[in-house]
Design goal:
Blueprint lengths: L7 E5 L4 H12 L3 E6 L4 H12 L3 E5 L5 H15 L4 E4 L14 H29 L2 E6 L2 H5 L5 H21 L4 E8 L5 H4 L3 H8 L10 H12 L10 E4 L6
Parallel strand pairs: 1-2, 1-4, 2-3, 4-5, 5-6, 6-7
Helix pairs in contact: 1-2, 1-9, 3-4, 4-6
Bound molecules: nicotinamide-adenine-dinucleotide.
């Protein structure tokens, strides 16, 4: 029997990038998946993963910054599968710029998706995990939430806030046997980092002890560990997956 058979895993922002790879890694391990994204591609991504891996999936179009959408995503999960065992808050956006030029909307949008979204998803997932006295929540933060980053005041504030949210919820949810942890990836090869200029990429790589960007699978494998019972005594932690960029 595969490790995640009979488990239901919901992953936000899973139409592409890290979220999609996390979905594939859990599918390989037998989980049934609820995949959500603001992009309408999510339904075809979910159908393809179901066929490729022989598991059950549900694709939901969702904006994580809307409470109504978050509640609906959790309700639909329970309606189809009757349970939610693992929640991975992965959806995230950037709206980079120097602070003095940053528009209020660019600040608010990033906080809304990257920080309020995970809060709303946790809030609505809690009741179901709580009644089963079982749950694993994994929030995808970022190395820049630990170090700060020029040009990313909004993004790094949202990711630092997500670490605070993770630790607070770990304390609140612990009595119900729900583990809450964060992963802080460094620079991972996805559409988000493709936007960087070649010169900037070279300069970043020169600061990474392992001398390369990470892959989405590097993050997905840690998510798999944090969702498994091998990590049952780990909660409120931030696991860095950054090639040594920040120690
Ligand atoms: N790529 C990196 O180097 C890196 C580093 C550190 C942290 N992260 C974090 O990892 C996560 C995934 O990043 P990625 O590189 O795969 O990005 P990506 O842009 O490739 O994928 C993000 C996904 O989130 C979806 N999304 C955006 N807004 C949404 C919303 N409001 N509601 C629901 N879905 C929404 C997008 O449609 C997309 O499918 C993000 O939280 C990001 O901040 C990425």
């Amino acid at each position: 029997m595969k490790e995640f058979e009979n488990k239901v895993v919901l992953i936000t922002g899973s139409a592409e990038g890290i979220g999609k790879t996390i979905a594939e890694v859990f599918a390989e391990n037998g989980a049934n998946l609820v995949l959500t994204d603001i992009s309408s591609n999510i339904e075809s991504v979910a159908s393809k993963i179901a066929v490729d891996f022989g598991i059950k999936t549900l694709g939901i179009i969702q904006n994580v910054s809307s409470e109504e959408d978050c509640k609906k995503a959790i309700d639909e999960t329970i309606k189809k599968f009757g349970q939610i065992d693992v929640l991975i808050n992965n959806a995230g956006i950037t709206r980079d710029g120097l602070s003095i030029k940053m528009k209020e909307k660019d600040f608010e949008d990033v906080i809304s998706v990257n920080l309020k979204g995970p809060f709303l998803m946790c809030k609505h997932a809690f009741i179901h995990m709580s009644s089963k006295r079982y749950g694993k929540i994994i929030n995808i933060s970022s190395v820049v939430g630990q170090t700060g980053q020029a040009g990313q005041a909004n993004y790094s504030a949202s990711k630092a806030g997500l670490i605070g949210l993770t630790k607070s919820l770990a304390r609140e949810f612990s009595k119900r046997n729900i583990n809450v942890n964060a992963i802080a990836p460094g620079f991972i090869t996805t559409k988000m980092t493709e936007k960087l200029e070649e010169k900037v990429k070279e300069s970043i790589i020169s600061q990474i002890p392992l001398n390369r960007f990470g892959s989405p699978a590097d993050v997905a494998n840690v998510a798999l560990f944090l969702a498994s019972d091998k990590s049952s005594y780990i909660t409120g932690q931030v696991i860095s997956v950054n090639g040594g960029l920040y120690m």
